Amino acid sequence: MIYKGVEYTVTAVAPGIWKWQFRIDDRVITGKTEAKLYLLAVRRVQLRINRERKKSASD
């Protein structure tokens, strides 16, 4: 999927556990989140992308 020009993935690892990954510039950021719903996990990744883009823009 793409959010604000950043391609990311969200995949189920276990019930309620989601693994995500995205790339900004040359950095690959990965993590896991707990959420019962897929769309909630996606939203959390999008919020993380916003934080990372803001952080990289200030550098």
Model description:
The protein is built from one helix and four strands; from the N terminus they run ββββα. With 59 residues, the chain is α+β, with helices and mostly antiparallel strands. Helix content is 36%, strand content 46%. A hairpin with a 2-residue loop joins β2 (6-14) and β3. The mean pLDDT is 95. It has one helix spanning 38-58, and strands at residues 2-3, 6-14, 17-24, 27-34.
Summarize the structure.
With 59 residues, the chain is an alpha+beta fold. It is built from 1 helix and 4 strands. The longest helix is centred in the C-terminal third of the chain and has 21 residues.
Low-confidence runs of at least 5 consecutive residues: none
Count of β-strands:
4
The fraction of residues assigned to DSSP E strands is over 45%
Q: Overall 3D geometry?
A: elongated
Secondary-structure element order, as H and E?
A: EEEEH
Biggest sheet features: 4 strands, antiparallel
- Please work out how many helical segments DSSP would assign: 1
For the biggest β-sheet, the strand order reads 1-2-3-4
User: Structural class, from secondary structure content?
Assistant: alpha+beta
Binned, the helix content reads 25-40%
Oligomer: single chain
The radius of gyration over CA amounts to 11 Å
Q: Which whole number gives the mean pLDDT?
A: 95
Report the end-to-end length measured between terminal Cα atoms.
Answer: 26 Å
